[in-house]
Design brief:
α1 packs antiparallel against α2 (about 155-185). The protein has one domain (about 20-185). The chain has 2 helices and no strands. It is rod-shaped and about 210 Å long. It is mainly α and about 190 residues long. Helix content is about 90%, strand content about 0%. It has helices spanning about 20-150, 155-185.
Length: about 190
């Protein structure tokens, strides 16, 4: 048998061994797949980087917004405190004004009471002196009569009557004195 010769196609042209062509196509396909896989990994890396940047950006915005919220809340609380301090200061001013007015009123009332008590005491002393004057006159008259040595039995009767009048006057004087003392002690 003879060795076969190179293969020919129907037209008589030599046939190329398909093995090399297939190997070239497989090689091109593998290269293309490697390129696609590499592009996919690159895209994933890019997406991860973009996502990481986005997460950092959102975190930064949240931190900035939180700081602004804290600052606004601090200002709000400080404003409330300022209003409270102002209200306390105003209440203290009002209380001080009221205390001053009450002190002045107390002084005026005490002075008026003192004047009134002094006037009542003076009037009571004058009234007492006027009420005691007849009693003192009767006592003087009684002493004068006793010292002159007049009468016997009749004088003893008169003396009893005059002593009764004297005791009555004395009791009236005591009542007046205790009344005045009571008024003055109030």
């Amino acid at each position: 048998m003879t060795a076969p010769g190179p293969g020919v196609d129907r037209s008589g042209n030599p046939v190329i061994d398909p093995t090399q062509n297939v190997l070239d196509l497989v090689e091109a396909a593998i290269t293309r797949m490697d390129d696609v896989i590499a592009a996919g990994f690159k895209r994933q890396d890019d997406l991860r980087d973009a996502e990481s940047r986005h997460v950092r950006e959102v975190a930064g915005l949240r931190a900035e917004f939180s700081a602004e919220l804290r600052q606004a809340e601090t200002e709000r609380i400080n404003a409330i405190r300022a209003v409270d301090v102002g209200a306390v200061n105003r209440a203290a001013e009002v209380a001080a004004t009221q205390a001053g007015a009450l002190a002045a009123q107390l002084i005026a009332t005490a002075e008026a009471s003192r004047v009134q008590v002094a006037a009542a005491a003076s009037a009571s002393v004058t009234s007492l002196a006027a009420a005691l004057e007849p009693i003192q006159k009767d006592i003087r008259d009684l002493r004068d009569a006793q010292s002159r040595g007049q009468g016997g039995k009749d004088q003893t009767g008169e003396t009893r009557v005059n002593i009764g009048a004297l005791l009555g006057g004395l009791s009236v004087a005591m009542v007046l004195i205790f009344g005045i003392i009571t008024i003055l002690m109030r």
